[in-house]
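Batch manifest, entry 17 of 40.
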Amino acid sequence: MTEESKSQTANNKDSQQVSSGSGASGLPLAMASVSMVMAVLAGGASFYVWDNLTKASQFSQTNVQSAITQAEKNTDDFRGDINRFKQSVSQVDLRITKVSDDIQLTNKSMAQLQNTQEGFVTSLRQLREELGRSATGWQLAEVLYLLDIANQQLELQKNVATATAAMEAADRKLLALGDPAFLKVREKILSEVGALKALRPLDRAGIAMQVRGVAEQVKSLKLKSVEYAPEKVVADGLLGKQEAIAQSALGWQDKLKAAWSEFLVAIEDTVHIRNQRVIPMLSADQEYFLYKNMALKLESAQLAVLKEDNLVFYANLDTALDDLNEYFDPEDVATINAKNALQQLRKENLEVALPDLSGSLRLLKQEIARLNLGAEVNAQ
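Output type: structure tokens
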């Protein structure tokens, strides 16, 4: 072997040693790189897992909070339903109580109605028994009842129409009876019916409406105004008085009289004597009560018309006229119209002279006693 081949062989050995040395040093670096990548991947995976866990926790908390809120809302709604149910129960209790009271009242009314019905049945039974005894006695009892009703309606209620109707019904009953013994009674009844029909009808509604019309005009009445109007002094009269004083002034007594007369003439310009009473001005309250008093007086007069009470009617009209003359303007058209209307109403007479209807009733009782029918009539 030559030297060149030896050197070449040595060089090859050296290069193999160098390459083996460099391979041995690169393996740890690769392992470190792999470890680093593994660490990064592990950290990313950990962060990913942690982020997902955090989001899952937040989502769970949000769901739990929403569930709690919804549960509280449902609880409040349930409580509201409970309260409304309690109110409904209270209303039902009230209705039940009212229905119970109505039932008790109905039972009481039914009991009263039953008692009344039993009374009617008893009265009807008695009536049937009495009708079987004497038809004449029953008819005469009806006539007596009608005549008594006519007297009561006329004397107590002053109801001419009802009294007339009752008298005519009594006459028809006697006519149906057909007994000549009661002709005088019929004649007396017809005479009293004629007296009732001859009465002048009193238009109470018309008079009351007239009073109401005056009452409605009270608000438009004008009060008197207080004005100072001194009497005018005639100059010629003063001169005549002064000349008469000058001519009569002869002695010291005449001079004294003249001085006194001049003094009186001098104060006539400042002092004025009024023979009429001066009405002071009214306050707002006094004016209000004045108008109210006028309206109340006229309303009382209106009620008196319906009751046909002349005394109260005239008293209220006189008071209203006095107030008109004293407090209201006599030259105002409304005052003049109201005064004329009240004076015209003052002429109305509410009390009508009513005839006496007791004569026919007395005559019928006398005829019943004369014919010995008292037992049968009284039995009715």
